Amino acid sequence: MKFAALLASPAAALVAHKSALPAAPVRAQASSMEMKYRVAVVGGGPSGACAAEICAQEPNIETYIIERKFDNAKPCGGAIPLCMVDEFDLPADIIDRKVRKMKMISPSNREVDIGKTLKEDEYIGMCRREVMDGYLRDRAVEYGAIPINALVTKIDTPADSDSQGRYTIHYSRNDLGRKAPEESLDVDVIIGADGANSRVAKAIDAGEYNFAIAFQERIKIDDEKMAFYDELAEMYVGDDVSPDFYGWVFPKYDHVGVGTGTVINRPGIKMYQDAIRERAGDKIAGGKIIKVEAHPIPEHYRPRRVKNRAMLVGDAAGYVTKCSGEGIYFAAKSGRMAAEAVVKLMKGGTVLPTEEGITAEYIKPYDGLYGPTYTVLDILQKVFYTNNAAREAFVDMCQSEYVQDVTFQSYLYKRLVTPNPVEDIKLLFGTVGSLLRGRAIATPDKPFSNPVESLKRL
Ligand SMILES: Cc1cc2nc3c(=O)[nH]c(=O)nc-3n(C[C@H](O)[C@H](O)[C@H](O)COP(=O)(O)OP(=O)(O)OC[C@H]3O[C@@H](n4cnc5c(N)ncnc54)[C@H](O)[C@@H]3O)c2cc1C
Questions:
Q1: Pairing relation of β-strands 189-192 and 310-312?
Q2: In sequence order, what are the residues at sequence separation of 6 or more whose Cβ sits closer than 8 angstroms to the Cβ of residue 412?
Q3: Could you point out which of 125, 305, 403, 451 has its C-alpha 20 to 30 Å from the C-alpha of 192?
């Protein structure tokens, strides 16, 4: 049964929930129907839904997915790479728009069009998160995950030495109105997919990460203006729109998302948002702001991502790339990889996984696959987003078809591109040239005073 259908019918929701209530404190033993091990996925975004659907397909594990808001519209640009469509079997109608052109716009408003290297069937998918997340969650439920519409408030963890002890998840149901009593569920394994403000991370003492604050306004512009953004996304760089990130205009379903982000001067976010609106100028003029949203974006992994039988995935773990701020694919992928590791380690629901096993089967393979991507994008951000001269150089370099091709291939398909030594040497010289040209034309960054946050990244 779908989440939405469960919501629409309180009685059905109650039935579903009752089946979710813990019976007597069961000691899980595999193969007996009433005594299965329980895996709870906290959070129903892309990471949680993609984790839950894998666990739910193992009939000897009882899988729960706990989400506070079934119709959550996560503040997000909603851009996903092409490979995600096939890999996660997304239906065509999840993609509202196919972006085939991007404009990079420098601090001095020099525009470079990128996308020339894309093949006809290649695109960046733009989706509405409320639609995509809803679809993925419903699919997990159809596979058998038991949905609980509730806010997780606290998690009691077993002692480190207790290899069999259960976790108790306390939550307040959101489908029963304000007076819903607090309830709890005992489980054996937890997958923390509850985003940047993760309760699971707190419960396992996973430590903090630096985060950017990202701000976005959804703006409805007239049809003529919308036609301009039909297949086009814009990225603006400059210290006016962000001292350490970029501002964007992304085409959404029937409007544009206009936003920016920063780590090192978060109190300035409104000023940067005003600047991105100003830079987009006539292209969005007269538009009606239909939604304003802001949310943290993690800057790096948490110090700890697994403890005992609880693990973090997606934003809760800190899997967003620097430079591009991309996190949806990495959330879905990490959720899937963590769940596959859990299912494998639980051997048909007969044994509990261990921290060592989860580290070996999920954390290490994930880092092996994507560690280099995070490192490269971290370096690029440090080199090219730090001052206007470097930003001018960055946009200049984007003219190179080689740079465009490498960028799109690695973004769209999430695979390392085989280096071309001749082109790499040309690129090296090109970069030096671009940096020198950038220095010559750039206006110096305006100073700002934020002694605490400004030390956080650069
Ligand atoms: C403004 C902005 C623009 C962005 N643009 C892009 C983009 O264009 N492309 C891209 O790839 N990435 C983008 N990102 C990053 C992307 O949104 C995240 O990386 C992605 O959503 C992470 O997915 P997740 O499932 O890990 O977490 P989330 O999507 O945050 O999902 C967490 C879920 O857990 C639920 N939850 C949280 N706490 C609790 C609790 N205590 N109890 C129960 N449920 C709970 C929430 O309701 C939510 O549904 C953007 C981020 C921001 C802020």
A1: parallel
A2: 81, 82, 83, 122, 124
A3: 125
Query: Rounded CA gap, 362 and 47, in Å?
Result: 14
Q: According to the model, what pLDDT value does residue 427 have?
A: 66
pLDDT (tens digit per residue) in 34-47? 689 999 999 999 99
- 200 token code pair: 């699971």
What the block records as the tokens of 126 is 């733009």
Rg of the Cα atoms in the chain: 23
The count of other CB atoms within 10 Å of the CB of residue 201 is 27
**Interval 3-13: pLDDT, tens:** 444 443 333 33
What distance in angstroms lies between residue 264's CA and the mean position of ligand 1's atoms? 21
Q: How confident is the model at residue 384 (pLDDT cuts 50, 70, 90)?
A: confident
Per-residue model confidence (pLDDT) at position 104: 94
Collapsing DSSP to helix, strand or coil, 337 comes out as helix
**Residue 139 exposure: Cα atoms within 13 Å on the Cβ side:** 18
* Size (the chain), residues: 458
CA 285 to chain centre: 30
Listed in order, strand segments (DSSP E) in 252-345 are 256-262, 288-298, 306-307, 310-312
DSSP type of residue 44: -
Q: Are 321 and 379 in contact (CB under 8 A)?
A: no
**Cα–Cα nearest to 97, from 75, 130, 123:** 123
**Ligand 1 centroid, distance to 192 Cα (angstroms):** 12
Protein residues whose CB sits closer than 6 Å to any atom of ligand 1: 42-48, 66-69, 72, 74-79, 151-152, 193-195, 199, 214, 216, 259, 295, 297, 314-316, 320, 325-329, 331
- pLDDT band of 437, cuts 50, 70, 90: confident
Query: What is the dihedral sign for C-alpha 36, 42, 44, 48?
Result: negative
Q: How confident is the model at residue 424 (pLDDT cuts 50, 70, 90)?
A: low
Helix residue ranges, H only, 323-413: 328-345, 355-358, 364-384, 388-397, 401-413
- Residue with the nearest Cα to atom 16 of ligand 1? 327
User: What is the C-alpha separation between 169 and 134, in angstroms, rounded?
Assistant: 23
Task: Kindly report, residue by residue over 200-244, the tens digit of the pLDDT.
Answer: 999 999 999 889 999 999 999 999 999 999 999 999 999 999 999
Say whether pLDDT at 368 is over 90: yes
Q: What is the pTM of this model?
A: 0.91
Instruction: Please give the single-letter amino acid code of residue 415.
Output: R
